[in-house]
Write the structure tokens for this entry.
Amino acid sequence: MTFTHALILRIPDQIRLEKKIKAEIPLLQKQQEGLAETLRESGVDVIYIDVPEGISSEFFNVDDTAVVINGTALMCQPRNPGALYFEIKTVLTDICWTLHECPEQYNGKKVYLEGSDVLFTGKEIFVGIRKHGTNMEGAMFLAKIFCDLNVIPIQLGDKAGPLKSYVSMASNNILSIGVGKEAQQILKKMEQEATFQYQVIKIEEEDCVNCLFVNGRIIFRKDKNEPKFVSLQSAGVELWALDVSELVKIGTPFSRYCLLFKEIRTSRAK
């Protein structure tokens, strides 16, 4: 996947940690900057948005706020909307070719859409439908906006996390996916419904599945050191290990902490 920009919500010196979460803010900031620097070294222009002091730790999931594909941005409707919707919208309006916003309702029903439930393979879009995340109305509205792409809803279990926790793009046409029951059910549905075929790397430890494939490089968790990603080197993929052990204490998967997109240099839609 080719990306030119990444949007990150800068972690301030004071944040409000949710119940039972123990994390060191200086280490969170260090690991976030490590993510930003790794993206820069991958050829990505990193855009920071400053966040007010004292904001809740659950509001740094910028990947949940929008889906950007081929120059078109869709502002999402997360179940726990953050406080920086306007700031994110402003950045995307300046860079993207066109921007849409999710309505509160679609076909008379409440809309929920979270970017971490949306997996774009470069050819088609899979959308995880789950009790505590994206619903069918969110997937239907996304399909309306990206009507030139095949949009495939994937029903997840009642206790499931975001789709990207179970499956990620590890390279062009290559999926990384867990071996657990939820992940294998997802894989089965994807294989049944997909228009295109994909190679699959099965990852034993679920926490290792989530990764970022950016400009020919795979960025994965250093603290987990998944050996199966090494096989991608034969396909010319560079392996970049990143320490996000503190970041994942305040939310997973780690891909939530950046919104990746590609600037399309063409006439802007009016």
Q: What stands out?
A: The chain has a mean pLDDT of 95. DSSP finds four helices and 19 strands in the chain.
